[in-house]
Amino acid sequence: MKLPKKFDKYEYYARAVQSPDADIDFFLRAYKESRGKAPHIFREDFCGTFELSRSWVKRHPDHKAYGIDLDPEPIRYGRKREKEDLTQEESGRLKIFKKNVLAPDLPSADIIGALNFSYFIFKDRKDLKTYFENCLDSLHKDGILLLDCF
């Protein structure tokens, strides 16, 4: 009898709540429709295993991605997946930062994405305002912040 595969919470999470290809399609379309040009740099706040960032750099050779997250466990998992999922060239266009999204010195981007209710972590209005101000400060001139709220 073959033993079942070890439970992988990150794999099941990604399957349950993420659709990276569809999300990237939407990001590209929303940016193009609102700004009239293509975006190149994506920042995934609260990136966890940085599934979206990996999909972003795979989409086009001009794409760069930055992932921001505090938790080392999902970042380690994402690094393992990165080695399996990306070419060396694609990995070179992906940078992951173990930092707080409230830090003022985060990388700039054309698009900042904070999905899966991640920014709901901010229960204090002051923290939420600080996060939005940091996003505004680090977006490129024509940059956009994409959030979900259901």
SSE arrangement, N to C: HHEHEHHEEHE
Round the mean pLDDT to the nearest integer and report it.
92
Low-confidence stretches: none
The helix/strand class is: alpha/beta
Helix proportion = 40-55%
Total DSSP E strands = 5
* Global morphology: globular
Query: What characterizes the major β-sheet?
Result: 5 strands, parallel
| Strand residues, percent | 15-25%
- Spatial order of the strands forming the largest sheet: 3-2-1-4-5
For the record, give the distance between the C-alpha atoms at the N and C termini, rounded to a whole number.
44 Å
Rg (CA only) = 16 Å
Number of helices: 6
Give a written overview of the molecule.
Helices cover 45% and strands 21% of the residues. Strands 3-2-1-4-5 form a five-stranded parallel sheet. With 150 residues, it is of the alpha/beta class. Strand 4 (109-114), helix 6 (125-138) and strand 5 form a beta-alpha-beta unit.
